[in-house]
Amino acid sequence: xxxxxxxxxxxxxxxxxxxxxxxxxxxxxxxxxxxxxxxxxxxxxxxxxxxxxxxxxxxxxxxxxxxxxxxxxxxxxxxxxxxxxxxxxxxxxxxxxxxxxxxxxxxxxxxxxxxxxxxxxxxxxxxxxxxxxxxxxxxxxxxxxxxxxxxxxxxxxxxxxxxxxxxxxxxxxxxxxxxxxxxxxxxxxxxxxxxxxxxxxxxxxxxxxxxxxxxx
Length: 216
What we know:
Number of strands: 11
Strand content: 25-35%
Largest sheet: 4 strands, antiparallel
Low-confidence stretches: none
Helix content: 40-55%
């Protein structure tokens, strides 16, 4: 549940920040660890390659992912998904996915402010065409003599189209706070499930033995 849903929390002198993951991938990694309890982080990452954010976006750098899966701590760069398309002889940047936990309206306002302050030149229009039906869609029109690639890199630099997400997999294990790696989180989940199944079987067995005694 911690891996699938993610978790953000602050307590006295400590904080946790676990990004959400894909349910199917977490299950596959758990099954792989059941089959091979000595599985390494690299082997588990074949099934669970990285976080899966509900707002999409692209995670940059596999080394940073491996670091936080191996140690429980780290940071990852998340970049918006942007496509450059031709429209009426001019280029357009269309953003369809944004980094997790970023306010879309604030981000659009920041882009507009950068254009008004002349920090980014070459943008002729900015529209938020997002809807519940089509999802996120931010359209940035580029001037005739400007280069969309250059402007997109400037947007990554100056706005939250590219953001750094810090990760700290701090959890409570048997009443004690611990920073766990990916294998350790899955090991604890497996141990919990084994405990649940054992207790359930013992409960059913005790009930059956009582009923046998009565029947005899």
